[in-house]
Queue: 2 jobs
Job 1
Amino acid sequence: MAEFTLVEVDRAEAPAVYLVVGIPGSGKTTVARELAGRFPLAAHIEVDALQDMVVSGGRWPGPEPEDEADRQLFLRARNACLLARSFHAAGVVPVVDDVVVRSVHLGFYREHLAGLPVRLVVLAPGPRVAAARIAARDKQLAHDWGFLDAVMRTELAEQGRWIDTSELDPDQTVALALAEHAMST
């Protein structure tokens, strides 16, 4: 049997860190997974899965502000950033997907990913399309999140690469996300 030895984890850094955001039903998880699949070595960091790791006392955000739910929202974002930094340093392209619609939330990501080549992709199909996608899922949401579309369009306007996914399939959306002009935050 060959000897098992310690190997270096970090090597040449990944070329980019992708942050795929939008309202619930915009296609974030599907697009992020497809986008990660386009690179030779990439990881999909689904922020909802990080929230699911809280096995007791977990609080999901609701339409009204709640201190503990808001704290956990930033905790999961911080954990996503820690994972993204680790993957990036190891040469693995991190693709983070999260519901980010407020400038303070995006600012938190920017602060915790400072110094990395972040590519912001904002999926914006509109609230009716997002609601229809949610209705077609097996898992239903507890609240109607359509109002977040207007918040996102106001607070994140002109930041990153905006893609209206209303009429696009995941491959078309990923192609736009990868387009050279789409590469800045």
Job 2
Amino acid sequence: MAVNPSGADMKAFLAAGPDQPIVMLNLLRFAPGGAERYDAYLAHFRPFAEKVGASVVYFGHGADPVVAEHGQGWDAVLLVSYPSRRAFSDMVRDPGYQEGTHLRTEALVEAVLQPTVPRG
């Protein structure tokens, strides 16, 4: 399963409204030793997020699900607020940011990266 967006994914993402503010939902399933590796990724990620005006809203490790099918629980959840879809795209294209994405890839066996928009 892919843990990073492809070029086609990013093109469709931007087409949905490049100036639209989003909160990106990250559902994370770690590889063995991945939680520590993901912490290293977050340390790398934060300055690049701040550079585009993004901020971490919440990061927490998952506990046993109350309602879920067997195996549907996630190891961690990360919510990041971006001022726009374009800001997210600018961040992931930054060569400095890209130098550390291997940390995320190595940390995860599965991920969901889903933009959310305010409702009401």
